[in-house]
Structure formats: structure tokens, C-alpha cells
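User: Please predict the structure of the protein below. I'd like the answer in C-alpha cell form so I can feed it into my own downstream comparison script.

Assistant: Understood. Taking the following sequence of 115 residues as input:
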Amino acid sequence: MKHRLLRVNELIKRELSSLIARDITFENALVTINQVDVTSDLKSAHVYVSVLGEGRAGAMKQLEENRSTLQADLSRHVVLKYTPHLVFHLDDSIERGARVIEIMQEIEAPGKKPE
């Protein structure tokens, strides 16, 4: 069952990514699906989304507004017993990672003294 759930997660992530790229235009934002976690009963899917750029709140709002359309399109592309209810979560792990790298580079920079 666990392997099946992993395959379902990956399949939904891939299909949802292409649906979002094709159907939704985001202003001042690059939206990426980092991970999808489908519950074991396949009734809901937690979609972790990374938003780079200034339009973070607008991008999340757009995803919520298009949720039912995305679910309907997903049901046509992915045949499952239930089409999971999509729940979007903002995932800022990429941004946090970039900030950590930036801090490490500041620490390593020789001869630079903070003012």
C-alpha cells in the first residue's frame, strides 16, 4: 500500500504541475509544487507549493479560487476511486534554504567587516 501511495503522490504532483502551468497565469510569481501528500483513504491531498517572487499571497489566493477546476481536471487525467480534495499549503523551504546559503556566504567572506 505504501508504494502505491508514493506513486499516487508523484502522479498527482506531475499532473497538477502541468495543469497549473497550462491553465493559471500568476503575476510576479513563480509557482512550483514541491510535494503532494495524499491521505491513505485517497480523499484529500495536501499540496505543498513554493512561490518565488512578490505575488505570494495573490498566488495562493488564485490556487484556492481555482481549486475546484483543478480537481475536476485532475479527475479526468488521473483515474482513482476518489479524486482527492486539494488542500494548498505554502512551502517556504526553498526560500529558507537560500537565506541559509546567503548567511553562510557572508560568514565565509574574508575581509568583509559588518559596519
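That's the full C-alpha cell string. The chain has a mean pLDDT of 88.
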